[in-house]
Amino acid sequence: MMVILTHLHMAKALLLSNQTHAIQQLELES
């Protein structure tokens, strides 16, 4: 169970960092 929770946490962190990166890219382009 803990392994799944850790996995989800990592996936969430990756999604958040990707989102932040995408937003920064958009700000740079505009």
Write a short abstract of this structure.
The chain has one helix at residues 2-29. The protein has 30 residues and is mainly alpha-helical. The protein starts with a helix and ends with a helix.
What profile does the largest beta sheet have?
Answer: none
**Helicity level, as a percent range?**
over 70%
Task: Tell how many strands the DSSP assignment holds.
Answer: 0
Coarse morphology:
rod-shaped
Oligomer: single chain
Question: How many helical stretches?
Answer: 1
Mean pLDDT: 93
Report the β-strand fraction as a percent range: under 5%
Q: Could you give the order of the helices and strands?
A: H
Weakly predicted, low-confidence segments = none
Counting helices, strands and paired strands, the structural category is mainly alpha
Distance between the termini: 44 Å
- Indicate the radius of gyration in whole angstroms: 13 Å
List the helices and strands and how they pair.
Blueprint: H1 2-29
Overall description:
- This protein has 30 residues and is an all-alpha fold.
- It is built from one helix and no strands.
- The radius of gyration is 13 Å and the shape is rod-shaped.
